Amino acid sequence: MSSKNTDESSATSEKQEKNKHLWILIIVLSICIFLLICSTIFALLNLGKNTIAKGVSIKGIDVSNLTVEEAKNKINEAINIELMLGIKLVYGEDFARDFDVNQIQYTYDVAGAVKQAYQVGKGQNIVANNYTLLTSVFLGKEIALEGSYNAESLNGIMDDIASKIPGLVVQASYYREGDQLMIDKGQVGVEVEKEELKQKILENISQRDAMKIIENSQVETIVIPTKQAQPEKIDIDKIYSEVHTEPKDAYYIPEPFQLFPEEDGVDFAISLEEARQIVGAENGEEYTIPLKITPASKTTDDIGMEAFPYEVSSFPTKYDASNTNRSGNLKIAADKINGTVLMPGQEFSFNEVVGKRTIEDGYRNAKIYENGQVVDGLAGGICQISSTLYNAVLLANLEITERRNHSFTTSYVPAGRDATVVYGVQDFKFKNSRKYPIKIGASVGNGIVEFKIQGIREEVEYDIKIIPVTTRGHSL
Hints:
This protein is an alpha+beta fold and 476 residues long. The chain is built from twelve helices and 27 strands. Helices cover 35% and strands 25% of the residues.
């Protein structure tokens, strides 16, 4: 009897335990179904909303429950503050440069980020939407804001900084000095780590926080990263390949007109092996390689007038042929100018072309004006050459870049149309502002100095007339 009661009691306990587990399972399933129904309703309601889901942020800025336009305005307001902040790039105590973000046209894709934020929880899959919305509410959902910039502008700024900081490494270089090639060994120095500097700048911009900037709007400072660098080893073979040229004669093509200036031939006057030994000397800072210069057989000055068939302008002045000293001075200067060819954009310098007026060149004493008085002076009369050329240049409508008139009226040109020259002090300069090369012809003889400017006729040519106007007793 006792054993039977015990079995019945045990069976009852087991049944109660099973019922308990069943109720727990029912309750859990009910809760899950309830949550599923609620989250589904929540997801369906979110699909119909025109605002961004709760918990969504862009670049750390909360855009929950905002419309697309409201979110755009909020983000744009923040990034405008961030992009206004400047950066100071510094190196040591002697170099600093202000960097403006606008210099590289840095922008953010605000519209793209807001669109992505708006789509959170609005996909085609309801289950996925539920999961996304729940994680957004409890864990947050961060949307990245992609930035872009003008890489070419940033690289240009890096190159500029890399060329200006103090103590830079000096690379080996060379230059020609007459018939000698001078090669500089270079110097040890520093080199800017341009890629690292770019990364620091871009990280500084992308990681900015508008609220922190409002609290402390001081300009950011970035130390320019550098490394020690040695100059590259002198490559004499490469230098030779760049220096060595064969002489080329000047020539032209008539249709369409093109003029090709002469090129002198350049070669080492010693063997390449000897040159290698010279630059291989460890104690040298600068090395000298002798050159062999072979002039071209035909220069632009030698090209005949058939290449310059159109007379752009001409201007004559008279002189006293009986004054042999002065006449000789005029001819010497005119001969130095005669045949000069100027390429488009090339500048003519009277003092450079004519050179220093010396006895060795054949110049003689003749009357000159000095401090308001007429006195004897070497190369007297030379200003008639510069003034005659000046008038021819005016009539050719060329660009005058330097000119000064005398303090008195000359006898050979109208008032205000002279050009005084003094070697080393006062020059007369002009540019060939035409489309094609021009050739200057100069002649002195039978009491007439004349300059002619020849070239190629252009589509539009002008007839130049010079009308003098007197103001305050001075002729212009």
